[in-house]
């Protein structure tokens, strides 16, 4: 189904995991895709794979923790493809794993910068373009940990909760301008992000999902593409879990 033909999508963190799956699925639906990541080699490879399959993709290296680079990324997207219709603000890291009293000051600043400030920076510059166009759809990559807490990850949890509030606020602000903004909340998904966890912890995490396994990046991408598309024309300011039943318990 080439329902996104003629549209341009921007994906951050597109070199790996969920972002890569989102970029590939946007392309399958016919969209032109700007991929961005700090990992240039992997990111270029994904863009080349899309082009080799007959799609239209480019890669631009940007660190989403840097406002100026986010601004440049949005500018590059518009100059390469002529518009910015859809964005998936997905790049993120796991960050320090420590209980709150032991969490380092540097670790806190870093995770808030990469996982939360980044979403504000990207939104700010994406909205500038979409406001001029009078249309657009943005999906922010939150987490189940944007709704509930977990011991040992206060920075990550706070960044994801913050992102959900920002999503709701911006959605209210820009709904009259024809721009929809939603958040997606994956459960634990089998991507390289989980490499920071031991095999034993991974096994325990499976037990937290009633479906009895970790999620796949492609299963998250399906929801992102749906929210981005006109099929979701009445959906804004929403948080959608895609979590194998994690939050239902
Ligand atoms: P991943 O590690 O496979 O991919 C993340 C990508 O982001 C990598 O390619 C990395 O290079 C890039 N990145 C990291 N820091 C960056 C920066 N400063 N600027 C630009 N790019 C940067 O991880 P993933 O599992 O695909 O995670 C993607 C998003 O999904 C993250 O926001 C993560 O918090 C969220 N998420 C993941 C899970 C999970 O279980 N895997 C669950 C819920 C939410």
UniProtKB/TrEMBL annotation:
GO terms for molecular function: oxidoreductase activity. PROSITE patterns: ADH_SHORT. Keywords: Oxidoreductase. Pfam families: adh_short_C2 (PF13561). NCBIfam families: PRK07231.1 (NF005559), PRK12826.1-2 (NF009466). Belongs to the short-chain dehydrogenases/reductases (SDR) family. This is Short-chain dehydrogenase. It comes from Spirosoma telluris.
């Amino acid at each position: 189904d080439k329902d996104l033909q003629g549209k341009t999508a921007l994906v951050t963190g597109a070199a790996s995991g969920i972002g890569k799956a989102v970029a590939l699925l946007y392309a399958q639906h016919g969209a032109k895709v700007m991929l961005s990541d700090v990992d240039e080699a992997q990111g270029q490879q994904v863009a080349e794979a899309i082009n080799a399959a007959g799609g239209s993709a480019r890669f631009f290296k940007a660190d989403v923790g840097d406002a100026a680079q986010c601004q440049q990324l949005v500018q590059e997207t518009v100059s390469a493809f002529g518009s910015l219709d859809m964005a998936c603000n997905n790049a993120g890291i796991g960050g320090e794993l420590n209980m709150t009293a032991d969490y380092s000051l540097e670790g806190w600043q870093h995770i808030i910068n990469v996982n939360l400030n980044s979403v504000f920076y990207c939104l700010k510059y994406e909205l500038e373009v979409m406001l001029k166009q009078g249309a657009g759809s943005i999906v922010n990559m939150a987490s189940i940990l944007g709704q509930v807490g977990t011991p040992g990850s206060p920075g990550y949890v706070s960044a994801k909760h913050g992102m959900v509030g920002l999503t709701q606020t911006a959605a209210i602000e820009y709904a009259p301008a024809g721009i929809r903004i939603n958040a997606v909340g994956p459960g634990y998904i089998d991507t390289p992000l989980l490499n920071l966890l031991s095999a034993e912890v991974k096994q325990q995490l499976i037990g937290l999902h009633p479906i009895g396994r970790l999620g796949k990046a492609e299963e998250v991408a399906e929801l992102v593409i749906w929210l981005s598309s006109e099929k979701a024309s009445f959906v804004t300011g929403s948080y959608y879990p895609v979590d194998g039943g994690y939050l239902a318990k």
